[in-house]
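seq/struct pair 1
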Amino acid sequence: MARSEASILATNKVLKNTYTLLAMTLIFSAGAAALSMRMNLPHPGIIITLVGYFGLLWLTTKFRNSGMGIVCVFALTGFMGMTLGPILNMYLDAYSNGHQLIMTSLGGTGVIFLGLSGYALTTKKDFSFISGFLMVGILVAFLAGIGAMVFSIPALSLGVSAMFIMLMSGLILYQTSAIIHGGETNYIMATVCLYISLFNLFTSLLHILGAVSGRD
């Protein structure tokens, strides 16, 4: 019984720390995106984006058990926010309803996250069985996305966005379940996983809505 109570307390602590840090990083990332938009910075390109993302992700993983890990989390989410700014400016310039597309994507992301997180928290269902599917699916979608950009295949790019919406939804369920069942005890890594899920959800929804809306 004592171990059970200790486990519940530990789980609640990880949940609290994860959602607190996630909220802080989302605000910081949004601020970085707003700054990037205001300065009208160009997009750094796929190579710099990938190098920056994976480099900062590696540093976050390395220092995940120290205070330096929190610094790395903010560096990673701030960097991703800076890369998001030029994308948002592009939608505002290319679409007359750009603001509406962005807000709809943002609202959709929030609804999906709250719905899936709430479901995992209330049902306490173990979603560890989808880990293998998520790993393979994300790898396939990532490679397909690069192929769509390199060879300029709009249909494939849309398909990749749809895949990422499904995969990131599954990742939210998996990560939340992992925290509940003790599979994830590091709130820094849990925060990074959920942030990446939200970032990809938002950009994928925005891409699909933009394609449906059509450029001006």
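seq/struct pair 2
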Amino acid sequence: MPHPLPRRRLLAAAAGAAILAAPARAAADPIARATITPQGGMIAGTARPAPWRIGFSDGYGATPWRAMCLAAIRQEVASHGPQIAQLLVRDAKGSVSGQISDITALIRARVDAILCIPNSPDALTAGLADATAQGIVTIPFNLPVRGEHWSSYVGTDPAQKGQALGAWLAAALHGKGGVVGLGGVPGNPYTAACWAGAQLAFKGGGITVLHFADAWWQRDRARAVMAGLAAALPNIAGIWCDGGQDAAGALDALITARRPLVPVTGDDYNGLLKLYAAASAGRAPAFDFGLMSEPSWQGVIALRAAMTLLAGGSVAKRQMVLPAMITPANYAAYIRPRLPDGVLVDTALDDATLGRIFA
């Protein structure tokens, strides 16, 4: 699911090319297991001497995902030693006007680059354009900023992810059967785009959509929603979700109702992987799943892009991330059995760091 308000070499021109997934432990270099598609042509940087000062404007840092994102950025900064003199972090705490002020403050601090997760696709346009005009490298990521007056954007395409999850579910059901869909907070654009992509994947085949409901990306809500759907719909063959909390809650409801567990989709919620491991212990796999994350390591890609431009290299105007698919075949590389359910496992962070974040 998205994370708006409510996973050693620099990226150079060649880094825009697709990088295929690798079957490494999840804590390995996250870019090595992702597909990154360049869009919008290449942008050339202007070399300036290191060490550089990097600013990070976080629109709302009070979520576990944002804490994981910042920790990954700090880890990447540390890996570059003397190339980065300082990382200046400002948290707008959900305020659009506060983030506008934060961007202004980073410009006045004469940083060399600004990384940004925007609170608004429109309100930060002027501030980032001003920074870019003053020669500061600007890299919005995770959530978009309208226009083109920034250096490069890093993010995922929810429609593409939704279609990939829909295609996985259709294949898991051998192209036929009735499915239900569970989304996030009512009216959010991420779920809308994901679900539209999923329906494209279902179109023209034998998949029938029985019902779609909002489940708020909350396991308890999804459990209650699915309990009602299971009682009303006896022939649910699969469950499409854009969030792993929804998927886990839906399966909880089927377990309580003593219904067969069915294939599900979602994101990289540790609780779902732990549910699968517990339900499958000592016997055949209990259910099938296909998961795609909203990687907290997008900030690492954004930082590497900024450093490439500061070194005089080139990056794509847009770097679109398609995370690896997590399934029963590779989930052992991602599950964190000793950590809380809320951990998002498509991460570059080790268990000790995650333990501190989720303490």
